[in-house]
Amino acid sequence: MITKEKELPILRVGKHQPKYPIVQGGMGVMISGPRLAGTVAAEGGIGTLASVGLGVLTEGYNAKNFAQRNSEMLRKYIKQAKDAAMGGVLAVNCMCALCDYESLVRTSCEAGADIIVSGAGLPLKLPELTDGFPDVALVPIVSSLKAANIIISRWKKHYDRFPDGIVVETPNTAGGHLGARDIEQAIDPALSLEVVVPALVDYLKENEMDIPVIAAGGIWDSSDISDAFAMGAKGVQLGTRFAATEEGDASDRFKQSYIDAKEEDVVLINSPCGLPGRAINSPMVKRYLAGIQERMPCRTPCLTHCICRIKHETFCIADALVSAYRGDWENGLFFCGSNVSKVTSIMKVKDLIHELLEGFKIPEIGLPSVS
Ligand SMILES: Cc1cc2nc3c(=O)[nH]c(=O)nc-3n(C[C@H](O)[C@H](O)[C@H](O)COP(=O)(O)O)c2cc1C
Questions:
Q1: Which residues contact 126 (CB under 8 A, 6 or more apart)?
Q2: Residues 287 and 182 in one domain
Q3: Atom of ligand 1 nearest to the CA of 241
Q4: Do 213 and 141 fall within a single domain?
């Protein structure tokens, strides 16, 4: 029996069109660095560089120089990623919750990012911050129709501009910080992709807004991708699977933690920034959940709202994420999606994208990007 190949939607984000509607989500600190983002872009997806805390890895990083250091490293990594991308589409992920958010957004534009993807808060001022860079596409991340509506209304009223795409990331399954007020809301089925994606697609259609919706969270294989397209999404964003690729910028020990993780090892925790997060139950997380306080001096004011800095509670998120990136199992916070237990080996980005596209008709365009 011959099975009919399924059509891939065309994902056009502002002036940028990757060959495939597959987005590698931004993952900080340095989990999606220039190597991963550049390779995904070169292989025909959208590669996303995570901009958070890049200066932490430099000598002498401190409260006075942190924003400048972060910006310098971001500029350097964007150049490296663009060189590796060979004309493919490169996005930069900028989190609203960061103290140096505005500086990271400006640096991304100046250094040649094609797209800015922005979440962990509502990016209400993003059009203003990117003024003067009309070719840079702007993509908010939301977890509900309500959040999308607020952003669209605000941008229209103040800037006469619409988002060039919207990522719907469900807190039910996604890795990293989650768009929910607490752990209870993070698992609320009302915020599932099945509910939010069709509702947003309908809302955009009813209001004659031609904005592509990108579904994120818990997407594992081509069948999940088909389901997301059937809901009306024009693209899909994956994090966990790309973190565990050969080209992923994290240490081998970070990737091994994904291979070793079992379903019951995935937990939800309250992060110092006030959002819930999904992570592996590493020794550091176990200590935190058992109420053991690890007092460390706050080196830099990285988050606008940080319970660790303000109340000396929780833990230092910058240290915990950098420890994970380096592969320090005892002290690291290993963010992951709910599907992490399905990771059994480290694949090449090219093979992963190939696997994700199984059963789909591959478009005939040669270049990854036709911007
Ligand atoms: C290790 C890790 C770090 C992440 N860091 C960020 C980040 O810095 N900014 C952000 O917007 N999303 C972040 N995310 C979310 C991803 O970009 C992506 O949307 C999400 O992981 C999709 O869910 P999946 O992992 O089930 O595919 C992170 C996810 C992981 C697994």
A1: 105, 116, 118, 138, 140, 155
A2: no
A3: 27
A4: yes
Rounded CA separation 227/337 (Å): 18
Q: Is the CB of 217 under 6 A from ligand 1?
A: yes
Position 28 in a domain: yes
State how many domains the chain has.
2
- pTM higher than 0.85, yes or no? yes
**Dist CA 13 CA 310 (whole Å):** 39
CB 55 near ligand 1, within 6 Å: no
Probe target for ligand 1 pocket from 240, 257, 275, 356, with the most ligand atoms within 8 Å of CB: 240
**Whether residue 52 has its Cβ less than 6 Å from ligand 1:** yes
Q: Would you say the CB of residue 29 lies under 6 angstroms from ligand 1?
A: no
Question: Given the CA of residue 324, which atom of ligand 1 is nearest to it?
Answer: 1
Q: What is the pLDDT along the chain (371 residues), one digit of tens a residue?
A: 556 789 999 999 999 999 999 999 999 999 999 999 999 999 999 999 999 999 988 998 888 999 999 999 999 999 999 999 999 999 999 999 999 999 999 999 999 999 999 999 999 999 999 999 999 999 999 999 999 999 999 999 999 999 999 999 999 999 999 999 999 999 999 999 999 999 999 999 999 999 999 999 999 999 999 999 999 999 999 999 999 999 999 999 999 999 999 999 999 999 998 899 999 999 999 999 999 877 777 878 888 888 888 888 788 899 999 999 999 999 999 999 999 999 999 999 999 999 999 999 987 765 554 44
Q: How far is the CA of 364 from the centre of ligand 1 (A)?
A: 30
User: Is residue 240 exposed (0-12), middle (13-18) or buried (19+ Cβ within 10 Å)?
Assistant: buried
